[in-house]
Design goal:
Length: 255
């Protein structure tokens, strides 16, 4: 599976007036600009997730209402960030998405290079940690306090694998189908749905998972749960790419 098959270029995949999205990194922007977009985008995403969780717990004692508020804020925030920063970096905000794009581009097609992966992923992780600290600061919480929210149960790990596989299938499936212009709405909608249909509430993102360990609030995750979550997210990414290859096989026509 090559990048040319999975990830159309900005010129061929989207009309000129439509911003590219995850899985379609525009080559015309400098690496510094793209790294900054990934750092700031991931920071704002985590600030939305953590901040809305804190706000929700301040306003209601009903866990269902808290999760609803948290998921709605995440949907709107993520959609806007993809729309805004997609033209700059592809709006990955997620090491699994970055690694998946590199894997599909490893034979010289469109997508990020290994050098760019080495810049994107640290930027995403630093951004996620900064976003959690920012959210805590806005609500008067301790700036850094390790989460005590244990999420190590097996069914939660399965939920993470499912959530991440679905996300990768969606993003790279849209690329294969030449529908990346719908990514801001589609990706945000999927994450919003996955909040509710997965047992883990769909972190689906190693950088965001690390950032959420730095806050002992509604959206936090205990440091002891990080390895299991990140491991299953990587497994989910592999499964998602396999599903893309299976479902969107090029060159197959009905007889």
């Amino acid at each position: 599976m090559t990048a040319a098959e999975a990830v159309p270029t900005a010129d061929s995949a989207t009309p000129a007036a439509v911003a590219p999205a995850p899985g379609a990194t525009p080559p015309r922007n400098s690496l510094v600009a793209r790294a900054a977009a990934e750092l700031i985008g991931t920071a704002l995403l985590v600030a939305v997730v953590v901040g809305s969780g804190i706000q929700a717990t301040n306003l209601s004692n009903d866990v269902g209402v808290q999760l609803l508020a948290n998921s709605l804020a995440t949907v709107f925030g993520l959609g806007i960030l993809i729309l805004l920063l997609g033209p700059v970096s592809g709006a990955h905000f997620n090491p699994v998405v970055t690694l998946a794009e590199w894997w599909t581009a490893r034979r010289g097609g469109a997508g990020v290079t290994l050098r760019e992966v080495a810049v994107y992923v640290p930027a995403q992780i630093v951004g996620a940690i900064a976003g959690a600290i920012l959210a805590d600061a806005m609500f008067g919480e301790p700036l850094v306090k390790w989460s005590t929210h244990d999420r190590s149960a097996g069914h939660l790990l399965l939920g993470e694998a499912v959530a991440t596989a679905g996300l990768i299938l969606l993003i790279f499936g849209l690329a294969r189908a030449d529908q990346l212009r719908f990514a801001p709405v589609a990706v945000a909608s999927y994450i919003g749905a996955a909040y509710w249909f997965t047992s883990s509430t769909s972190f689906a993102n190693p950088a965001v998972t690390i950032g959420r360990a730095f806050t002992d609030t509604f959206a936090g995750i205990a440091p002891g749960s990080l390895a299991g979550f990140i491991g299953m997210q990587l497994v989910g990414g592999v499964v998602g790419l396999a599903l893309v290859a299976l479902i969107f096989m090029p060159g197959r026509t009905a007889e």
